[in-house]
Amino acid sequence: MTINEVQDKIIEEFALFDDWMDKYNLLIDLGKELPVIDPKYKVKDFLIEGCQSKVWLHPDFDGNIINFTADSDAIITRGIVALLIKVLSGRSPEEIISADLYFIEKIGLRQNLSPTRSNGLLSMVRQMKLYSMAYNAKGKYNSIGK
């Protein structure tokens, strides 16, 4: 599935709900499904700056694709990072760098988050793209933090 196909599926999923409380519950459920991050990555090196809650994001690059794992101490934020992982994990650095994450606007996520959570969302996207740019620029395909 392409990045855009995954985004379209997310948009359809969120469109089933009119009420934002139901959409928040969907986010919470997505967060509960997020695979557990290895505790060795829940350290300052993988903490995302700019988030109100604590969010740890770890990239694992195998030379072709980046797989992300993450965690947060806040349930809504955990759901948000789960959405981003659903869209961007398992992609090449080039795909992640060039991805237009239109689903964020289409599902109304940014408009329905507090300003601090919205800033956190942008920080998560920025960090995922920065990891991708680093892997792309390096030409050296080792995993950061291994």
Task: Describe the structure in your own words.
The structure is a single chain. Helix content is 51%, strand content 10%. The protein is mainly alpha-helical and 146 residues long. The protein has one domain: Alpha-Beta Complex (Sufe protein. Chain: A). The chain is globular and about 45 Å long.
Short recap of the structure:
With 146 residues, the chain is mostly helical. The chain has six helices and two strands.
Topology:
Elements: H1 3-15, H2 20-33, E1 55-61, E2 66-72, H3 75-88, H4 93-98, H5 103-106, H6 115-138
Antiparallel strand pairs: 1-2
Annotation keywords:
single chain; 146 residues; mainly alpha; Sufe protein. Chain: A; two-stranded antiparallel sheet
Question: Helix tally?
Answer: 6
Measure the end-to-end span: 28 Å
- Oligomer state equals single chain
Strand count: 2
CATH architectural arrangement: Alpha-Beta Complex
Strand content: 5-15%
Sheet/helix structural class: mainly alpha
User: What is the CATH class name?
Assistant: Alpha Beta
What is the mean predicted local confidence, pLDDT? Answer: 91
Number of folding domains?
1
| Helical amount | 40-55%
Main sheet properties: 2 strands, antiparallel
